[in-house]
Amino acid sequence: MPQLCLLGIFAGILTGSVMVAFRLLLEFGALFFIPGDDPEAFETLSPAFRAALPLIAVTLIGLWLWPQPNRALKMGIGHVIERLAYHQGKMPLRNWINQWWVGVISVIGGLSAGREGPAIHLGSAASSWIGSRLRLPHNSLRVLVACGTAAGISASFNTPIAGVIFAMEVVMMEYTIAGFMPVILAATMGALVSWAVYGSEPAFSVPPLQLNSLLDLPWIVLTALVVGVLAGGFVRLAQGHPSLARVPFALRLAIIGLLTGAVAWWYPQVQGIGYDSLERMLNGPMALDVLLVLAVIKLALTGVCMAGGVPVGVIGPMLVSGAAVGAVMGMVGGALLPSVVTTPALYAVLGMAAMMAAALQAPLAALLALLELTRNSAIMLPGMLAVVVAVLTARQLCRCQGFFLSSLTRQGLHPLQQPLMQALSRVAVPAVMERNLVRTPRVIDHDRAKALLDSKPTWLVIIQEGKDKPPLAMKAAHLARVLHNEAWLAEHERIDLEEVPGQRLDLAPVHLEATLSEAYDTLNESGVDALYVEHTTAPMIRRISGIITREAIENYYRRKR
């Protein structure tokens, strides 16, 4: 635990620095063509230029990604969850580099894209790199990936608590004390790095709001229902249709660029993240047509990007669209029921949290983000109601499993593990393996046999002749038994360990850094009942560090349960 907490601090600092570098890169890119160096100020550009920007962006993205294999095109939070579930948290360098390019170009190029998804991928991969360089066991890599995720959210919004819950609820999909401590430290350090550069204020200012009357609650429920339906529709749209895979990648990019450019000609608010529009709608009235475009069209454009194969960040656009839906419902409620809906801005804030919760199926993360962004506990009661209704609507009415989980399920991946495998993935092989062993050739003399037992080993690892023959494991007690049998020794001048009465287990290799879930999978795939644990002590030199049996894994799980 102390070592993981120390690594969590380093991971938080590294991820916070990566997030700051990403934001600075966006601002640097805006220097070249956006007045005021603001990567959100698309309204200041001429209609023709801002409409052409998405076409330029998809061209640059396409030229960069086109020569690369499909596996290199996976980016964002979904990629982090996949690598965590199927690759023990190890992140490919090529995907990490691609995320820098696609993340920056998609935002400053005027696509409807966010910065949080890229920041989480970049931070998680950087944190995983720390563990890989230190050759940490894979269960520790999982914790470091969660540290990078929490620090990425924390540094982006200045919301460290929401970052911790987001990492556990959306990425890790579990809550453990061992995981919480390093992740909390990482989120804290990520926020501190962001504070040092951008100050301690949240990503956008929210006016003081409160629920003035319980009569608002029915309209809040109706607002949450609308948000839940839109969130479910967004997730389904972003999943795409299987027939899209047959459309050439270049054509899909062209469609994305043309659709975004056509809308941006009249409504530049749909471009980029949209936090400038979000702040305006939270602090004052906006035109109804702009709100409707942000509520529906911006959300749809983000979904089209994802369905078309451009892995943009989705959290920022979701927050903006959710706030717009809430603002529209607040305006409508204020016009129809002026005595009931007295605070329209309240609905924008609630819509923002409800959209995040419903689309990601992450109610706790959304509620804590709402609390930290508003710094107003009085808003939590209506917030809880709105979040629960929106999540249930998306889940039950639209059959929405959550944006990232749905994306992986569509690819045939199932990151939600069974309880056994999820529990075993938290434990490294050294926690269970039997270290008390000796290596021996198959045929030995009596003196060598007695010498082997001097150290009182539990296992004998029998090295067979021939490179293709795997080693065998035998309990040392079986050899000890025959050494006390004078009649048996008289018949055998030399001892062939394969002739000694007793059970011998075929062995398959597993690495010292593996988790128990990996070891269990290896046992099932290789059809053996025991594994020998390899440890690389020097280049090209491997030694056997221990033996782990199926029975030992199952007994460990029963004891912990």
From TrEMBL:
The chain crosses the membrane at residues 47-66, 175-197, 217-237, 249-267, 287-307, 319-341, 347-371, 378-397. It is found in: Membrane. GO terms for molecular function: chloride channel activity. GO terms for cellular component: chloride channel complex. It is a multi-pass membrane protein. This is Chloride channel protein. InterPro entries: Cl-channel_core, ClC, ClC-type_chloride_channel. CDD domains: Voltage_gated_ClC. Its main location: membrane.
